Structures are given as structure tokens and as C-alpha cells.
Amino acid sequence: MQIKKFTAENYAEALSMAKKELGEDALILSARTIGRGKGLREYNGYSKVELTAAADPGAGEAEKSARAVAAPPPASGTAVAEQAPPGKDEEELDLKSLVATLLTQTDRARSMGLRNGQLKLFQTLVDSGVNDRMAAKMFERIDSENGFAGDRSGPDRDKNAAIEMMRRVLLCKGGIELEEKSPKMVALVGPTGAGKTTTIAKLAAHFSLLDRKKVALISLDTYRIGAFEQLRLYGEIMRVPVEMASGAEDFRSIVRKHSDKDLVLVDTTGRSHKDPAYCGRLKGIFDAAGKKVETHIVLSVTSQEKILEGSVKQFSPLTIDRVLFTKLDEGMSFGPMFNFSLKTRIPFSYFTAGQRVPEDIEVADREKVIRLIFN
Question: How far apart are CA 245 and CA 254, in angstroms?
Fold first, then answer.
């Protein structure tokens, strides 16, 4: 086993030196900063970075992944614990993943090529839930587009450039647009508990009571006990007809019945993203309408990103036109909304925050997302 230490100005350089001399399969045993510095907020005091790496000259081609038990992130100015002896709980880790476990958040930012002046802003974005690699790429693009170099740009200039880039990335195409000669068909789909029924009541109230449009509601939710009764009660208050469709034939007949309406809103059963067959059945019902059904997927900002991504994958056969985010009043971090927009490129339509009908709904606005992320 060949073991060697590498010292450089930053982690990226030290890692590059280690990989160049020991090969791509080099194993990082320890990582530390050398010089002044008292913690995460004192990163400007750091002067050098030291990596201790090892490589097995006799390793075969099959051993392409570095093997180690991930150590806890290093305290500022101190060495990381040595590699644990191989055992049955040992995991194969990609070298990049291994390095990530060894670095503090600031160290990771520096290893991604960020300037010192960008680290505080980077931390703000990551703390708000923005994916760290997306944030690093954004800063790379900012420097490229604006010609920033060194630390001359300053935090305000970086923040303004980041906000402007987020404005370009976030897709908000407005709310429901009615058609002139036929009813607009809009269906709300999404996972259980996202708030579809309450949201559809808010939309119905807005268009019928505030805009004075003719609206009809159709429920496809024959699964939940009391779901139709809840929607029917909303309909009575707003004086809007509410119908129940149990299948494609019912749906086609009801759509024809309300061909004089300006807007037909369709409520659907909430299902787990682990139920792929449901979406196929739903598509068959929508196709029976004989015209385009605009689909808005309803997602809660309180959901884990994996749930958001799984839901989009589940309903993708329907061709999702918009995403409607609910429960902004309950959200703790809003960076995942930015991640979602960047990954899926599905435009936002509405945001909801609260249970009041119709007050707690608004047309999606990228400026609001940016404020939530930075606040």
C-alpha cells in the first residue's frame, strides 16, 4: 500500500494532485486544513489543504471503486479519523462520494471551484434546500457570463447575478386560460394528501364568484369516503354543479352535458407514486372526453424531493402541463421548488397557502419563490 500526503491551496488542487500521482482509484484517508481559522464562518483564514491518500499498486481493473467506511466531516483545522479496518459492513463508494463525506460544507464548496466570496451565498442557498451541485453550477455560469474573477465581484453583485439567473430558470406561465368557443378542461392529479380537493374548490370559487364564469366540477374520486360529499358541499355554497363519474362512459356523458360551461374542473383520486397502473386508467378516462384535458399535478412543498420526483414520473403518461404547489404556509425550505423546476422544466401555475376558500390561492410567481429561498 502506497501512502502519501498532498498539500495545495484548495481541495480541488490537492485532490487533482492525488489522482494524478496515485491514480483515479486513490483512497482518501484523511483531510484537513492547515493554518488559521476557527470554524465554518472563518474560511478566509485558511491557507492550505492537506490530503492523505493511499493506493494499492497491485489493484486489478475490477477494483474501480474506492473502498472505505465514511468518516465524519472534519472539524476545522483538524485531521479526519483514519480509515476503519475492512469489515463486513464496508461499502464500496465512488471516489467523489467518499470525498464528499470527508469535507465540511464549506470545503465541498471550495472543492467545487467556488470563490471565497461566494461561500456565504452558497451556504444560504444550500440551507434553503437548493441542490449543492446545482448551486455550484449556477455560480460557475455566473462567473462565465459576467467575467467575474478572483473575489472582485463582491457578495451583493454575486447575489444579484444569482437572483437574475434564478429568474431565467424558474418557469411560471400563469394560471388557467379559458377558451372562447368551448369549455376549458382542467384536471388536478397528484399524490394523496397534497390538497387537490380543497385546491379545486379554490379555483372554482375564483372563476365562478370573482370572474363570474360558468363552472362545473367533476369528481373521479370514488375511492375516499366522503370525498364527493366534500366537493358537493363546496359546490352548493358556490352554486356550481358537481358531478360524479365512475368511468370513461360517465365522464364523456358529463362533459357533453356541461358543454355550455366556461370551465370544467376535474378532481381525481390521490394515489401513491408506487401505483403505476392508476395513471393508465386515468388517461383512458381523459381520452374519453374527446378533447384536450389540461393536467396540473398538485404537489406539497412539505414533501420530500424523492416523492415529488416519483409523482412526476408516475403521472408523466398524462403529459403534465403545469405544477401547482400547495401548503406554502407549512413549508420549511423552498429550494426544492427551484430544483424541481430545473430538473423537470414543468411550469408553475398556482401556489396555495392555507385552507381559506378562495383567498389562499395565487398565480405562481417566480419572484415569490426567490423571496422564499432567500428568506
Answer: 8
